[in-house]
Amino acid sequence: MTQRTYRRPESVLVVIYTTDDQVLLMRRCVPPDFWQSVTGSLDWQEQPRQAAERELFEETGLLGPERLLDSGVSRRFDIWPQWRHRYQPGVCENLEHCFYFCLPAITEIRLNPEEHSEYVWLRRQDAVQQAASWTNQAAILALP
In this structure, how many other beta carbons lie within 10 angstroms of the beta carbon of residue 76? Predict the structure, then answer.
């Protein structure tokens, strides 16, 4: 296998929120009951901002690069053992770059049915409780 066959251990997290403190979370199809913001791995030739724009559109249908704010924060986390086969042998950590996307109000979202089964808008504290990953929780807590 060549390096490009494996997934790049670098990703983006895009927290979508409104000016009145509502946060969008989406339920993953697999594993079920895993609620998250927009996430996705960088393609091998991609920069984090490019990946954030691509994933935002693919997972929600939202566009607006002028609204996409790079938080400047990146976090490392352990890749779950059941997903490590997607990465080169020995890769156990992922580097996640955090972005924010602010909307003036709650809006309808176009989900990618291969990735997410439903979405919900929640107040910030409720979203922190619902988000499945610690990096997503930390990003919601640090909303601008």
Answer: 10
Q: Are 8 and 103 in contact (CB under 8 A)?
A: no
Where residue 5 falls (left for φ over 0; alpha for ψ -120 to 50; beta otherwise) is alpha
pLDDT digits 0-9 by tens, 81-135: 998 999 999 999 999 999 999 999 999 999 999 999 999 999 999 999 999 999 9
Q: Would you state the structure tokens that stand for residue 34, as one six-digit string? A: 């895993």
Task: Indicate the CATH number for domain 3-141.
Answer: 3.90.79.10
What is the rounded distance in angstroms from the CA atom of residue 121 to the CA atom of residue 126?
A: 9
Single-letter code of the amino acid located at 129: Q
CB atoms within 10 A of CB 26: 23
CA neighbours within 13 Å on the CB side: how many for 138? Answer: 13
Separation CA 98–CA 32 (nearest Å): 23
CB 55 within 8 A of CB 34: no
User: From the centroid of its chain, how far is CA 113?
Assistant: 16
